[in-house]
Amino acid sequence: MIDLKITFVLGTRPEIIKLAPVIRCCDRRDIPYSILHTGQHYSDALDTVFFDQLELPAPDYNLEVGSGRHGKQTAAMLAGIEEIILEDKPAVVLVQGDTNSVLAGALALSKLDIPVGHIEAGLRSFDRDMPEETNRVVADHVGDYLFAPTEHSQEYLRDEGIDDDRIYVTGNTIVDAVHQHRELAAEKSTILQDLALQTTEFGLLTAHRAENVDDPERFENLLEGVRRVAVTHDLELIYPIHPRAQDRLDEFNIAVPDKIRVVDPQDYLDFLQLEANAELVLTDSGGVQEEACILRVPCVTLRDNTERPETLEVGANQLAGTEPERIAASSKQMLMTQQEWTNPFGNGSTAEQILEILGKETEAHL
Predict the structure, then answer these.
(1) 20 to 30 A Cα–Cα from 197, which one of 80, 154, 273, 336?
(2) Any idea what DSSP says for residue 82?
(3) The pLDDT of residue 84
(4) Residue 146: which region, alpha, beta or left (left: phi > 0; alpha: psi -120 to 50)?
(5) Catalytic residue (choose from 37, 179, 208, 365)
(6) Domains of the chain by range and CATH?
(7) pLDDT tens for residues 4-26?
(8) Has 208 been annotated as catalytic?
(9) 243 torsion bin: left (phi>0), alpha (psi -120 to 50), beta (else)
């Protein structure tokens, strides 16, 4: 491959997880790269421990933007990214997903004479109330290389008038990441012993999205539905609680039912080990829907829509919203499901495909 310098722009744990296979692939191929961390989720656990745990190099740059209102945060990222990219002079910049870091990276590069590639392009929930939906749509429309995980995503991009010559169906790097990180988790994690859990004798709950936890009635309904699942199926539900959700429990004075065991937020490898060994996953996270599908763990999504419709089509997932009756019914069906669905997100070669495409495209434009 020709000399292809890449800058990775990232800012949150999901981005790091899904870009890790591409970073490792650059190492294997001796492709030079730099990592620009916006600091969107700035913390020592993210910036030091997390990179160390996944055996990734520390970022070359860190904007340390931190949390804040969308406008202020994105503006700070735009200014910082532009300055560093002009200094770094990569051949291409890669962003992943639908965060404010992705939005800022894509917008900043659209003003510079350096192409940007969007990994996980074409996902759509069709819910414009979600800030993530705006981020992913804008990134797709200004991006030069759109790496769509599935043909569904490709069709959504086409429907929006995006030219075929910008779209590449590559699968999703989450498959590469799950395969690579599951080995690390099995080697390093002691979470099952720490929580005194027997494999497949527990369920896993994640609930953190604003539309669920910022509405007290909706949050209480969600927890009641999960309680019914736990009681009906004699299943302890482990809930690694997100700080946002804990704050709302305290603010609204909501009591978590006894059959739901609240535990501290888990690092990625411990969470992956819990996920891989659970009998059922209930979640409002998009990434967790994908991971559960890949790991062949039945999933119930506590939302009214999903940008991962492929998980529904292959029978790995059901949408339940937050009404207790629907959560209970969907969970019963998923617990009876034969876990023989086909993984729709690729075969784990996505990182290799992306670098092959970038090499050929860069060479063609010389």
Answers:
(1) 336
(2) H
(3) 97
(4) beta
(5) 208
(6) 6-172+346-364 (3.40.50.2000), 190-335 (3.40.50.2000)
(7) 999 999 999 899 999 999 999 99
(8) yes
(9) alpha
